User: Fold these one by one.
Assistant:
Number 1:
Amino acid sequence: MNTQILSQLNPAQQEAIQHIDGPMLILAGAGSGKTKTLTTRLAYLIDVVGIPASATLTLTFTNKAASEMRERALKLISNDTTHPPLLCTFHKFGLLFLKFHIHYLERGVDFVLIDSDDKKKILKTLSTSLPIGYIESQISQMKNSIISPAQALSTASDRHQKLLAQIYQDYTDFLVSKNMLDFDDLLALSYEILDTHPSLAQEISQRYCYIMVDEYQDTNYLQYQLLKKLCSAHQNLCVVGDDDQSIYGWRGADISNILEFKDNFENTKIIKLEQNYRSSTQILTIANTLIAHNYSRLGKELVSTKGEGKEITLLHAYDETTESNQISAEIKKILANGGSPDEIAILFRLNALSRSIEEGLNRAKIPYKLIGAMRFYERAEIKDILSYLRFILNPNDDFSLSRIINKPKRGIGKTTQEKIYQIAQSANLSVYQAHQSGKYTGVLTDKTHQALNDFFSTISTLREYLDVSMLQFIDIFITEIDLATSLDHSNESIDRISNIEEFYGMFRDYYIQSPSNSLQDFLNDLSLSSDADTPIQGSISCMSVHSAKGLEFKYVFITGFEEGFFPLIREESDIEEERRLGYVAFTRAKDELYISYVDSRFYKGKRTELEKSRFLQEAGLLGNKTATLSEGEFKSGDLISHKIFGSGRIISIEGKGKNAKLKINFGGLQRDILASFVQKV
């Protein structure tokens, strides 16, 4: 590492990078260069201090963040990295750990990692009395709270808890019997192994003697306990995070992990990164002012390195339709002045608010992308291909077989499938084993038996190519399992065929890039992918504030700044986390920030009158000029008086000055009136 790089960093960053031993909390505000600090510290440990790269472990939360950090770190490291530093997500680390150590649980290394959709299907076979989504959430919560099925059963205090605990036990037994793992198991089982084998925990801790964690405010109880095991031989744990950006409490993130870090690890060094390289002073002022109302925080104040910047724009509208029209008009101005769609984002606290925004953008013919739509790998046609690949890898995987046994159609309908599975289960065999043992001979019709023969023969042929060449395997797979040609030529099918072709292209590219990887490696890597790994290009981005975490845009519009929407007010709401969401939303903006609120919204089947968000007052925004028209002119939402029609409220405005055409709601009757014929109330 070129040590001149240090001189380009601010004093707080330099101090963090050069601190070597002992626990350290880097409190890194939004846009304060935390990734640069983390990657430079890794390079400093390896190149300047002389720590072997293989003795370091850096953990983060998304593949995208891990990839970016790995690329930046390797560019900084000049020493030979034949054994490069391990820099990956928590769950990728769990996957790697289990590949080497799952035998401690007397389980095989040929485990299959299932996704959320598979998990729901399994749970459906185990329960019909409770909502599947609820069961899935509760089981995940118990695993991340390190509660075993046995503990859940022993502590259940009522019939409902006992039923849930029994489903948890049955689900766990099913996974073990099929040697399957769900996403939570990657960390839960890793922790179980380290907890029950202290000598192994010491060995792993001595191997990774310098550990760094990104986005520490997002860690949950299980991740905190896992880190303690990894640090059992030392205290060289450096965590980077921002308590003011802890917004995932609803999915188990525990803000106390960062707030109490100095209490959990003795002699902690705390360094605050408060110089912000992203946003203007105007934006940071309201972010700092809003978040200062929280009590549960360590405290810091972001300072802009960019200067004052443009004043925050408040957009006030009568209803959601007017709001979307105003936002579209502002975006058109930005685009007309040379702004790129990629630099613009519209954020909302609730996904339900996206409907009116989408309609407004469509009316204005502005291209947009709604982030958070169905993931590519969860589409039906892609799930079909993945089930084929899993079954090829493990012919005893009846779960995957159930999806593909008649895709494309081969004359094995639902009734026949039930018969096939019933025969196998009664013999305590998989369908493949039952077929090989002749259990279906003379029981199934000749046509069905031949179809089953042909199917398993194709699978056997494909299995042989796994040991020859993965690229050849892909070509044979496409020829033999021709899912695309079984589709019709409707618009939906054309999209599905395009998705299949896209998958095959990506499948090939994976093995061109990583020729030594196995099919199991491919499937496991896919299961670790996430929405945050999807690039956003070519259009305006519309997304929830949660989805925007970690992103930045030159121009940001935030909609729905009304009580009940932002902050979201429900029985389980945490007003401090809502405030942190506001802080995150504000600090996504680099240059220009627009905040919108309305007087009423049509929501859940009825129109509701609303009060402006308390956050506008708390952020010091209500002294700012409101709306998009020049001072002294009318604005949408204004109450006006007309000498004949009486009082009304302006819905929309075309033009400026006294000749502006106002669309006005007079007690339910809408009229177009020139501005010179009305006055403000």
Number 2:
Amino acid sequence: MGKTVDEILEVIGQMGRFQISRLAMFCCLVFAPTFHLLNMFFIGAEAPWQCVKNSTECKLNGTFAAGDDDYNFRCNINRSEWEFADYEGPKDSIISQFDLVCDDAFKGWLAKSMVYIGMTVVTIPLGMISDRYGRLITLYPSLFVIIFVGFASAFATEYWQFLVSRFFVGSVIYGAYFPIFILSGEFVGPKYRPLSQTVMWFAFSVILLLLALMAFFVRTWRTLMILCNAPWVFVFIFWKFTPESIRWYMTHEKIEKAEGELRDIARVNRKEYPQEILKIPPSSTKSLSCIALFSSWTLAISALIQAFTWFINGMVYYGASYGASDLGGSMYLNYALTSLIEIPANFLVVDNCERFGRKKTVIFHMILGGIACFVVSLIPAGVDRTDFIVGRVIGGMLGKGFITVSFNSIYVWSGEIFPTVARNSGMAFVGVMSRIGAVSAPFVVELKRIHPTLPFGLMGGLAVIAALGCLILPETRGRPTAEVYDTNNDAAEEFILQRNGRNDDEESPTEDAGKGTEA
């Protein structure tokens, strides 16, 4: 009969020396791409402005103007009449370097979004290459582009050079992320698979905290960009020790290589390899394209609701991150606090998804995140009162924390809602929508120029609306993951309606909670 991969892992070690060393290696691999997701918070920071000394033109209401009280005033006077002021933030940024103000202000917002634009445009083709030729074919080439193009961007002398470099970095970020997250869960046994995935999320949060520490001590954008890239060149020594996906080998009829990887795990873990042969899985039903997601009204509504929810999660997560500088007080402390909150949020993801179900976890925390953001919008900004600043910072932290729980949980939920034959297409579709949400985040934050309540108010309201829309989606906890659906006879509609008709707290007697995440 033979043994499956998971059954063999139970014999040769589910979490032994091999798995621990590879998880540590994968944690190192995610440093460079993670830095680029949010380093523009500091590299693209805009300092307040002030009138130059002895200016005869730069007066607002009869007094010298200073700060950001009036965005339009400085744009209506001669550029030589005002300058960027000293403040507790970065000494320089791309805003001051390339003078991205007034009519050119949108260029600064575009620079913040360019990484996410690259991710949106190129991620799906990279995924197709990875599926066809293996995980490693995109992993290390993508890391090479991220590190070396990111390093080169520190020496850009023109705005367009910096912008193009950001696009190329963003275009390959998921070419690195996807293989790392896939491999981190494939080489551990089923008992430790949720833990291995959570370790990667914790590494993500720790890297964001390290970015805040680096930016606090390094106040020039070029040096900070160098530090985000140059130190991580050493990760290429891991190429030799990074195994290819066992399951990819099996689906591409490379059984001998799959067994070779498993024997390496047994050798490193000092376990005896079982005598049974590796069981070859039956051929799966051919995967369907994104078009199949819209082959009936029920499927289309389900896909669109998920897409909107992913879009809002992406917008609010990155919007709350970029908006941390507007909460009041130290931008470094605010950024660190809104990053630190992700650590307990990851614990809540693991606990709540199994205790309360995926549906309740996503909806409840998205509503709480929306309420927290809305509260931030109601507290006056730009006021020196300590109670107002503390209130906005706490609200910002809670908003970021709750949306982190929602964002990480919906990865699990959508992966279980989409049937196996459409899972890749479905996840690619909603993933692109989340990145479009990330693209919009810097522009949403800049709505403060119209009215200070708009950024967090808009994010909060949309988060609640998206959460309520998820009420009609099915719960998936403890239930077998759908493998196929027949788009010709609307079996998919029956499948979804049956799920909706079941009690959310009801668990399948034949399936353990969480099994769907492994399908």
Number 3:
Amino acid sequence: MAQTRLTLEPEVQSIFDLVDQSKNFLLSGGAGSGKTYSLVQFIRQALAENPKNTIACMTYTNAAVAEIRGRISDPNLHIGTIHEFLWDLIRPYKAELIDTLIASLKSENLTSIKNPDDRFNPEELRGRDVQYKEYTLVKEAVVSHDEILILAHDMFSTYPKLSDIAKDRYKFILVDEYQDTSELVTDILLVHFQKSKKTNIIGFFGDAMQSIYDDGVGDLNKYRKEGLVEEVKKIQNRRNPKLIYELANRLRTDGITQDASNDENAPNMSSGKVVDGDMRFLYTATDIDKLDTVKDSLGWDFTDTKENKELHLTHNLIAPKAGFAELMLIYDGDKIIAYRNRIKDFIKETKIEVDFSEFSFGEVIGHLVDEFPSKIKDVTPTKGMKPFIDGHQELYQQALAMPYVTFRRMYVAKEALIDDKKDDPSATTKAGSKRDALIKHLFKIQNIINLYKTRRYNEFLKRTEFKIRSVEDKRRLKQIIDELSEMSDQPIGVVIDRADELGVCKKDDNLSIFFSKSRYLYDRVAKVKFDEFQNLFKYLEGYTPFSTQHKIKGAQFDNVLVVLDNGGWNKYNFSYIFEEAGTESVVERTRKLFYVCCTRSKRSLVVYCSKPSAKALATARKWFGDKSVQCID
């Protein structure tokens, strides 16, 4: 056994030393260190040493899933999301599940499932089965991803037998990108599992410096201090050129300092040496935006979206450049919807028990104004809402006339528009997209057009209701696709109606339900030109060079352009990290995000900043070097 391990990476050998001692382990490695490579090595070795070993592996990126599945095919290896893993363990115990849901709804703990209606008695759920879906309706015992974590945590805490069952089922439970895992999950695996006398091994792979989401555990320091998990550090870098991983070392705050890989076949090696790469910090001395000038000067082919990426902080900053600004404004800038939310919050906080089921939205507002004259400021539009409302009076009147119950329940959020973005067209779509039924229907139309144009006829025929029974049908189909393709300047609503009339993409029940429940939103989107959606489609399917800085974690590209624009967010501020000032939590969060961005590059990294302060420039020169900091005016 020892001889077979000699071919492993030193870090993986160290992991197996811990496994031999029945200890849980954590592989910590900076960006580009090859953590997924180590994960694959570990799985293959564990299966080689005992083919009967059962392994559960939770991954959070499509790249990791594809790499593991591409290299290992074994019936004892189970790959999926943490939610799927936990649901699979708890769903057989229906009585305990419903008991736990009821208890959580009654609890006032911060981590409990919130009761959406103070008048709803959770005991009414007795006798029901808990269902796991893409949406949450706890009054009907329907839960989604967030609730699954809470239920699983409470069940493992209450029923120690569950830990016995999990340990019997899996010899190894591995968590990739552990830093983004909820603390509820790490508590299950490292605290509640201790209640079981049975043995198994929990392994974590990840990087605390890449914990850029608020709901992740961030690090495992508290568990390490309690001796519940042992750390193995991986300091090599297999991805980034020398200049870039040295920049990354200056950005890190946890003591991990990366060096060149010992593997001459690593992607960043050439002729036995690590490549230097190219790294620059470009800035303007005035407020005039020179981003297009920067892009032109780079000479990168931004149409090659697999190798060249332009990173911005938010989708909102990208929308005007990518050509779907109007759709983004509808889903993420509608102040009438913001006012509706203000009214909803007031009713909930004031605990008003009036039955508004027969009221319009306008009548609800009138009732609140009459009943709460001393709180008139709380039930009228804010100064920030008034300009939008004044400028969209026809829209506002439509909202006022809508039944309040319908308008209140209408879901409007940018996730319903831009969820599930790919970084390139070949990436797989994640399960459980939050796109609403209207956007999904438009995707279906554009997919059908694309499949026909790219001659993927077999897949095309699976997606469309159009039947081909003769040569004439084929000719007719070509005419139909040509017609739809030329409707870019037409309103989206006209395109939907025409695709239905032509029999290519029929209006289904989901679209009908959306129309009846979200007419306000449907009417707004229906007036937008179809080419806006086509631009959105290209962006979300990875056909544009644009991406958000959050979305590319785990990905890598030859050339990366990072645009430092705060976008009005209070969670991130690039000025803070370069000026070495500001709220500590914002500084830490922004520094980690910047680290993730810079370490995506396999060859060249360019950071663009508009009019930085003298102090920010001093920091840039310290991090990038004097010669690499250049003014482009």
Number 4:
Amino acid sequence: MALSPTDPNSFSRPDLAIVTHTHLNVKVDFDRKIFDGSATLDIEKKGDTDLLILDVRGLVLLSIINVIDGSRLDYCVEKGVDYGSKLSVQLPETPIIDGDKIKYKIKIDYRTSQDSTAIQWLSPEQTAGGREPYLFSQCQAIHARSMLPCQDTPCVKSTFSAEIRAPAQLNVLMSAIKDEVIDSENSTRIHKFHQPVPIPSYLIAIAVGALVSKQIGPRTKVWTERELLDKSAYEFAETETMLKTAEEICGPYVWGIYDLLILPPSFPFGGMENPCLTFVTPTLLAGDRSLANVVAHEITHSWTGNLVTNENFEHFWLNEGFTVFVERKISGRMYGEKVRHFNALMGLQSLTDTIKTLGANNPLTDLVPNLVGIDPDDAFSTVPYEKGHTLLFYLEELLGGPEVFEPYLKSYLNTFKYKSLNTTQWKDFLYKYFSDKTEILNTVNWNAWFKSPGEPPVIPKYDTSLADEYLTLAKKWLAHENSSAFNTNDIDNWTPNQKEAFLAELVLNNEALSIDQIKLMDKLYDFSSQHNSEIRFQWLRLGLKARWEPSVSKALDFATSQGRLKYVRPLFRDVYAWEVMRQRAIYAFNANKDKMMYVTREMVAKDLHLINEKKGIRAN
């Protein structure tokens, strides 16, 4: 497949030369909060010029040499944009000839900045153990360029290896297979890794800390600080079942191991699908496995995203829409098809909330948005997840159901494995596979799905049986019925997801409950004492919507005790929208922003209007 040089968020030019392997040799310096070392790049020439174009952001470049003869190479860093710069390297005059391929090997000595947007440095006080420092990376969408010089676009996939020197008392993990650990001088150890499957740069990941593990399946260890180990092992005990179910749907798992790393609270996402080592937020530790579906989502990324990848982040739905679609198939097989449909209805709730926040005419609610000049972080929302899932569910129904669509899914994944593609290529393959159903496919309004903002043009006919009960109770509360109409046992038999969906329905409704109703609901259902993060989040939002003052301090405490964007941004926005509480939101942010990872800090600052928003578009 031809590689595209047109990623709007990357300077790299894979049409000229492509990086096929990266070897990192770096020292982790906790005192200076930097990586110090080198990246050795294997390069294959593609075009007519002798330039290699890379992406960098805030890196200190010390030298670039030809590994073959040690000669220095000329290079230039051009002034870039907020999210990076273009590094042009003059390739050596004497290439390595390998059959009909022209190759090079260069070494870039560099240091990261203390302000690297990919790396979160934590003091011992910010960890569960409180004794050792900790760091972790988050490179998606385009932050790998602040951790190493690379072609920071998902249309380029390459293998990597690494030698990481770190303090001897700490463990090092990467999105790769660990080969060995070597004791070294000055109280350090060298940890060696290799990733033999080609991956895009955003999947390169590292964590360093006082990390221990426990085996929870034949292919899976759970890693975390010792204080959270047993709780984490219990929470994610069903991982192997999810992995096997995903293989039934998608085909063989090619990555060898599937480990989980439960990170400190400042991690900004629910999970991150780093190969061999999924990163997970501790907000999933509900104690009842009710939030473990996030792991099913990250497992699915092993195929949809990691194996088959969006060409650039305008086509992000090819990663996330497919992943949500398969994740819910896993839930359906494990817990029943009604659960799959219920989860889809919850997804629609989330999508409605996003569209309400962004605006129904906002172009960032297109399934395939134009991201020229827009940082993908500013465009991040539930739209590619839920609108993408809705399209795939609709197509499955339209084309004959799971027994027809699942063989297509396997064929699609097998055809594009190890590759990156765009929406046009996806659609072309869909038509090719279903060549006998072209007339049916022609009834789909593709332009409305891909390029129209707002709600999906078609909502599938979901089974609502698991939703009817909470919807009926929500209507009773919204009708302001007498308090005698409600009882403590109204929700006794509900799952945590039903409780969450009930609260979300009330949050989304245009009408707010009264403070007296909120107090009564808490007395009857005791939502204030819930430990489930999703229920807690929706309950806090409902209280803020009712202008119940006790919710303000609790919401800001929750928003600053963890960094998950799903919770942090809406809670800060809700408090900010309450005009008399606006300064409390700003004060809480300023008091805690230095503990936040870059993406969380930047997004919340925009939500609070503390920095200008790019192109006047409100991010989600």
